[in-house]
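Thread amino acids onto this structure.
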C-alpha cells in the first residue's frame, strides 16, 4: 500500500480593467478586483496486485474571495463590494479487477459535498441591491468500465459514467435586482440567475483501439452519448429586451451561467496514424459532435426569435445547443530524414477542416465550411539548434461563424460586425537553441 498526503495554499490577487466597447458614444468598462485565498488537502491510498488495483482517498478544499466591482455601461454604473467562500469535502475510490487475462473491470465512486456562500452590496442608479445567501450541494457519482483485450494489439471497451459539477453564484447579476421597480422582468431574470444549480450527467461510450501492420499503423474509434440534467451554459447573447433606455444590460449577463433543463450530446471520434515508409508518416483524425436541447424553459430569446422587442424568454426544445460545426477533421503528412550524424531534415503539412455551423442568427456571411492549411519545414541538430520555416492559415480563412451586427456606428455607413479577431495568413522563421 502507498499512502500519500498532499496539501497546498495559494493567494492570488487579480485586477481587471477592460473597456469592451471602445467606440464613440459607447462605454462598457469593467473594473474588477478579486482576491483569492485557497487551501486544499488530500489523503490518498493506492496499491496494485495480481487480482486488482485500487486508489482511494479523502479531499478537502476551501476558497475565500474578496472583491470589488465597478462596471460602467453607457450611462449606467454598477459598483460595490462582493465576497464569498466555498468548502469542498469529498471521498472517492476506484478499483480495477483483473477478471481474466483478457478482461478488466473498473468500478469507481465519489461523494462530494459543497457549501458556498456569497455576499454583495451593489449600487445601481439610485438603488441598492444587497445579497447575502448560501447554498449546499451533494452528489454521489460513479463509473463503470469493462475492457477486453483481444490480443496485445487490440482492445475494446465499454464505459458508463455518472458525473457531477457543483453549482454556485453569478457575480454580476445581483446588481440587476435593484431594477425591480423599473424593469420587473429583467430584475426577475437576475433573481433567477443569482445562483445556478449543480449539473449531473450520465455518459455511455464504446470504443476500439490498437495497432496493426507490425506496429506501423495505430487506430482508435469510439462512439458516445451523454445526457445532462441542469446543464450549465451561458444564455444567448445580444438580447433585444436587454437593450433598455438606461443602457445595454447584455454585458451583465455575459459569461454568467444558467441551467438548461435537459441536454444530450452524441458523437463519434476516430484516428488513424500510419508510417508510410522509413521517412513518411500520415495521420487522419475526425470528430462528429451533436449537442441538442431537449428542454430549456428559462432561455433568453436569441435575436430574431422574439415576437416583440420586450420579450425576454423563449423556451426551447429539440434545438441545437450552440452554433458550432458538427464535423471537424485534421490531416497531416510528415517527412523526417537524417542528413548526417548530427543534422536532420523535417517537414509537415497540416490541414484542418470544419463543416458549416449548426445555425446562424445575425448573418450568413461567415457560415461557409472552414479550411485551415499549415506548413512547416525545418533543420534540427543534436547539439540543440532548431531552424524552422513555418506558415499558418495559408488560405487566409476567417474563422468567425456568426458575429453580431453592431448598431453603434455611423448610421450613414454599413453597420460593422462585432466578432472575434483571428489572425489571418501567418508565416515566419524561428531559430532556437536548447542548452
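Threaded sequence (435 positions):
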Amino acid at each position: 500500500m502507498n499512502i500519500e498526503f498532499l496539501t497546498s495554499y495559494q493567494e492570488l490577487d487579480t485586477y481587471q480593467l477592460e473597456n469592451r466597447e471602445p467606440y464613440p458614444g459607447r462605454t462598457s468598462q469593467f473594473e474588477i478586483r478579486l482576491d483569492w485565498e485557497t487551501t486544499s488537502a488530500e489523503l490518498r491510498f493506492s496499491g496494485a496486485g495480481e487480482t486488482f488495483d485500487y486508489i482511494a482517498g479523502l479531499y478537502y478544499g476551501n476558497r475565500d474571495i474578496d472583491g470589488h466591482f465597478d462596471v460602467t455601461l453607457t450611462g449606467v454604473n454598477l459598483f460595490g463590494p462582493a465576497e464569498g467562500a466555498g468548502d469542498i469535502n469529498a471521498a472517492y475510490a476506484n478499483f480495477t479487477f483483473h477478471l481474466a487475462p483478457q478482461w478488466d473491470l473498473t468500478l469507481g465512486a465519489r461523494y462530494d459535498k459543497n457549501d458556498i456562500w456569497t455576499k454583495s452590496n451593489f449600487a445601481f442608479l439610485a438603488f441598492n441591491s444587497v445579497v447575502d445567501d448560501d447554498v449546499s450541494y451533494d452528489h454521489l457519482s460513479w463509473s463503470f468500465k469493462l475492457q477486453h483485450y483481444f490480443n496485445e494489439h487490440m482492445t475494446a471497451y465499454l464505459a458508463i459514467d455518472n458525473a457531477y459539477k457543483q453549482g454556485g453564484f453569478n457575480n454580476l447579476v445581483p446588481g440587476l435586482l435593484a431594477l425591480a421597480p423599473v424593469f420587473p422582468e429583467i430584475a426577475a431574470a437576475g433573481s433567477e440567475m443569482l445562483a445556478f444549480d449543480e449539473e449531473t450527467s450520465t455518459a455511455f461510450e464504446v470504443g476500439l483501439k490498437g495497432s496493426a501492420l507490425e506496429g506501423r499503423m495505430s487506430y482508435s474509434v469510439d462512439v458516445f452519448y451523454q445526457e445532462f440534467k441542469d446543464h450549465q451554459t451561458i444564455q444567448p447573447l445580444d438580447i433585444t429586451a436587454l437593450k433598455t433606455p438606461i443602457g445595454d444590460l447584455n454585458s451583465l449577463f455575459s459569461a454568467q451561467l444558467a441551467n438548461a433543463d435537459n441536454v444530450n450530446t452524441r458523437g463519434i471520434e476516430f484516428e488513424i496514424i500510419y508510417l508510410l515508409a522509413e521517412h513518411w508518416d500520415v495521420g487522419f483524425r475526425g470528430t462528429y459532435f451533436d449537442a441538442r436541447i431537449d428542454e430549456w424553459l428559462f432561455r433568453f430569446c436569441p435575436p430574431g426569435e422574439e415576437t416583440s422587442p420586450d420579450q425576454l424568454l423563449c423556451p426551447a426544445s429539440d434545438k441545437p445547443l450552440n452554433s458550432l460545426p458538427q464535423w471537424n477533421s485534421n490531416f497531416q503528412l510528415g517527412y523526417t530524414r537524417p542528413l548526417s550524424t548530427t543534422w536532420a531534415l523535417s517537414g509537415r503539412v497540416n490541414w484542418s477542416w470544419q463543416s458549416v455551423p449548426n445555425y446562424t442568427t445575425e448573418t450568413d456571411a461567415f457560415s461557409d465550411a472552414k479550411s485551415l492549411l499549415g506548413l512547416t519545414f525545418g533543420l534540427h541538430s543534436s547539439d540543440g539548434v532548431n531552424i524552422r520555416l513555418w506558415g499558418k492559415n495559408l488560405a487566409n480563412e476567417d474563422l468567425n461563424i456568426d458575429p453580431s451586427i453592431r448598431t453603434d456606428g455611423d448610421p450613414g455607413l454599413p453597420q460593422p460586425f462585432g466578432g472575434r479577431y483571428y489572425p489571418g495568413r501567418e508565416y515566419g522563421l524561428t531559430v532556437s537553441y536548447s542548452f
